[in-house]
Amino acid sequence: MAKAMLIDLTRCIGCRACQAACKQWNDLPAEQTRNNGSYENPPRRSAKTWTTVTFHEITQPPSEAGEEEGFAWVFAKRQCMHCEHPACASACIVGALHKTPDGPVLYDDKKCMGCRYCMIACPYGVPTFEWHKAVPYIRKCTMCADRIALGMEPACAKACPTDAIQFGEREALIVEGRKRIKASPAKYVDHIYGEKEAGGADMLYLSSVPFNELGFPELGEERLDRYAGLAMLAVPPAIVGVTALMAGTYWIIKRREQMMAQAAAEGPEAVESPEEEVA
Amino acid sequence: MTTYVQTRPSREMRPFPVRAVAILLVLMAIGLVTAIVRYANGIGAISNLSDGRAWGLWISFDLYCGVALAAGGFTLAATVYIFRRKKYYPIVRGAILTAFLGYLMVIAALLVDLGQPWRIWHMIIYWNPHSPLFEVGWCVLLYTLVLALEFSPNVFERFNMQVPLRWIRAIQIPLVIAGIVLSTLHQSSLGSVLLMMPDKIHPLWFTPILPGLFFLSAIAVGPAMVIFESYLSSKAFGHRLDPEIPAGLGRALVWLLALYLLVKLADLLVAGEFGLIFSSALFSVLFLVEVLGGVVAPLILFALPAVRASERGLFWSAVLVVLGLILNRFNVSLLALEGRPGVSYFPHPLEFAISIAIVAAGVLAYVLATRYLPVLQHEAEQPA
Predict the structure, then answer these.
(1) Residue B293 lies in a domain
(2) Interface test with B, best of A45, A139, A239, A246 (most B CBs within 10 A)
(3) Is the peptide bond before B298 cis (omega within 30 degrees of 0)?
């Protein structure tokens, strides 16, 4: 069964213990940051920072129940979504990225040549690159696959003081998410983000505000490699078709030329020579 | 004004273009130093690329435009050797040289753009047949080999090597067909690469038939590039060219551009996105400049007999097609492709330095090849 995480943003207090735990477990260095007028820090994920908590100030319209216009400070822990059908893995020219049966989408240092197509293909803006290294690699969240293999939960889930990050079986977490939404329909938007997005992901989110207001991309339910996959399927027939077409065209035109030449030799006055074909 | 009388001395007697070559060498040296800095300190040291914009000038210009502008090689080879329009024989070698150099330039750019270029051979042993880039990689590799073979008679003739010349002529037609198949795949696969991002590319450009549009625009820009460079090389080297040749290419371009335009607009109509042409603010401007300036305008110009009768008319119309193609490839692979939120990108001067150095190297190779090899003046071989 695939492992997954249920991240309930209504429980997140923005403490960033997950960020710190991630750096600790994965031995990631600190990085130069800057004050953006927000507690959000560092401002972007990078090859040194695989997960961040983003801070959002959301104004809520007056509710139908008669509540006044509200204000919400919402925190969103972001990292690799560990898609069911990862666009990064479909994109990778050397197959350095792959979906493991356990859930994590993992990267193989030994194969990567640094083309960065995964970074372009990922709809969530996850893979990052070591721009200032002479021998650079792609870096991203691994769902702590090494910890999972040892029977432990990922470092971020372990560190979370409010249980906003819950680690478990994907199916069970979806059931849990539905239960929470049903129990408190006023508290949650009726959407488990990640359940179906782009074919589904192993990072599942609950939120009190619409996900697009938190910077989550609005994606359909279909896999992102659907069109590219069709194009790749068309390659073998295209090879056969174009070869046959060109060889056939060559043969027909060549034969016509020969017949013309023959006819011209037999009865020069009967046939006109083909225009502009004579070199 | 169209005079094809040979007024200048033949190539052996012309003085070596010392100043021009010196300028090219300086540009190449700047690029080389930039590349050394890049290999020592990483891509970030010489570029404005970032996690939010991982592909920039090198991919859009050197790869996307470079491959398309090399399309003259296979379109002319098909015209002469498969469709047997022997009229175009005098320019086929120049077109193949341009394509060959174009692909070498693409590879040179990849050796800068790839994070670990010394691993470029990994694509040969680690396969991911689901990746459009896998198709691109194999097409670059194989078509460059085919182009090298298609170009090789120039070298064999120069040094009078009869045996390899016989071999290459024996496999000429299969070689040309292989080149056409690989080019068809390669031109379209650069469109397939972008199919992976259906939600990131503006709908004016994103369509499931993007690979088909890439192919159609490539076979249109091929002859335009041939007109462009044969005009320039006839000015620079003073060799004669039958005016019927560029005029004939111009006639073909009317049909090729019309087909491309028809498919592009029909696709927008079918998708119900035709209105976006006028309602997408800056993207509307980019689209209209690309389509009106780079497709409609040259289509009308090439359709006019007066333009086709004029050497310069043909040249400038071809320039419009080439610029339109360049804008199209920049639009679809950079400008209309969303970066990560909050990230803006404009190429670093040193990114330009790399691209300029590669173009300079290509121009220098073209000058030397046409000077010392029988590329533009060749009599011995005729299509079998």
Answers:
(1) yes
(2) A246
(3) no
Distances from the Cα of A133 to the Cα of A12, A189, B44, B218, angstroms:
35, 43, 8, 36
What percent of chain A shows pLDDT beyond 90? 84
Number of A to B CB contacts under 8 A, please give it: 194
Q: Does domain A3-224 have CATH number 3.30.390.30?
A: no
Query: Which among A132, A215, A226 is the nearest to B41, CB-wise?
Result: A132
- CB-based contact A93 B177, cutoff 8 Å: no
| Number of compact structural domains in chain B | 1
Please give, rounded to a whole number of angstroms, the shortest distance from the CA of B18 to a CA of chain A.
Answer: 37
Q: Which domain holds residue B345?
A: 18-372
Structure tokens at A193: 């983000």
Dihedral sign from CA coordinates of B303, B297, B85, B211: negative
| 3 state DSSP class of B191 | helix
The whole-number pLDDT of residue B200 equals 96
Residue A274 has pLDDT above 60, yes or no: no
pTM of the full structure: 0.92
Identify whether B11 is part of a domain.
Answer: no
Mutate one of A80, A107, A120, A275 to test the B interface: name it (highest B CB count within 10 A).
A120
The answer to whether residue B171 neighbours chain A at the CB level (below 8 Å) is no
Instruction: Cite the residue boundaries of each domain of chain A with CATH code 3.30.70.20.
Output: 3-224
CB B370 within 8 A of CB B97: yes
Per-residue pLDDT reduced to its tens digit, B233-262? 888 877 778 889 999 999 999 999 999 999
